Amino acid sequence: MDILIPPRLIKHLQKDNKWSTCVTIATGKITTLVSGTPEFFPDYTDHGIKHINEMLTAVEKLIPEQALSDGEKDESSGILEPSDLGCLICAIMIHDLGMFLKKDGIKKLIDGPLAKPIRNSGDRPWKTAWQEYIDSTNRSSRKIMYRQFGKLIPASTNFISMDNMGDDEKKVIGEFLRRNHGRIAQEIALRGLPGSTVNDIFEGSTLDDSDRKMIGILARSHSMAIRETMPYLKAEFEEGP
């Protein structure tokens, strides 16, 4: 199965070579990354290619033709430029990509060079977030524990460093990824997907930092209230570089 951009959106994207190329590059890389079963979600709802295609189809149906710019700078032209559409499509394709992190990616996220929060995000360092999650999990009631994992699992910060990780450990790590996958999506846009090496989804395109920032906050916005995005947007796009 391939990621399928609706033809009407492709036609509009092709008015801007920069964004058409970017989406093509990202589509190829993401298709490969999400084709398998997520390591930490063997029984979870599909968040792979089928889900991405459903999201793209839904977005295409929500955009009226008159909203798409024809490239002319006049009042009769639509408000959505190819750059807007490119940002949106890229954000859709990476919004659940954090669910597909593998063990080496988790290690790099928590303890590696990517552990520092994004500027103006208000996030805690990943190591702190991981410790707080483990502490909170171990304080959970039996009812919550069974709802999340199907059993009682004493959680440990050492799960990530285990050589032979079992299903219990994977469930605990998977829940951490689920809770934070919006933040991970934003970081993927800016820094790449962590793994044995960092996979820059947009490498080979001509995106600049502002483009990546916009894709990142769009990808993250599905897991936060829209008003919560404003401090970041104002800091990054209104108050200097």
Describe the 3D structure.
The chain is mainly alpha-helical and 241 residues long. It is built from ten helices and no strands. The protein has helices at residues 7-13, 17-33, 49-62, 82-94, 103-111, 126-138, 142-149, 167-191, 209-220, 230-237. Helix 8 (167-191) packs antiparallel against helix 9. The longest helix is centred in the last third of the chain and has 25 residues, at 167-191.
Compose a concise summary of this entry.
With 241 residues, the protein is mainly α. The protein has helices spanning 7-13, 17-33, 49-62, 82-94, 103-111, 126-138, 142-149, 167-191, 209-220, 230-237.
Query: Structural class, please?
Result: mainly alpha
Please state the average pLDDT score.
89
Low-confidence stretches: none
Shape: globular
N-to-C CA distance:
40 Å
Order of helices and strands: HHHHHHHHHH
What keywords describe this structure?
241 residues, mainly alpha
In terms of topology, how is this protein built?
Layout: H1 7-13, H2 17-33, H3 49-62, H4 82-94, H5 103-111, H6 126-138, H7 142-149, H8 167-191, H9 209-220, H10 230-237
Helix pairs in contact: 2-4, 4-9, 8-9, 9-10
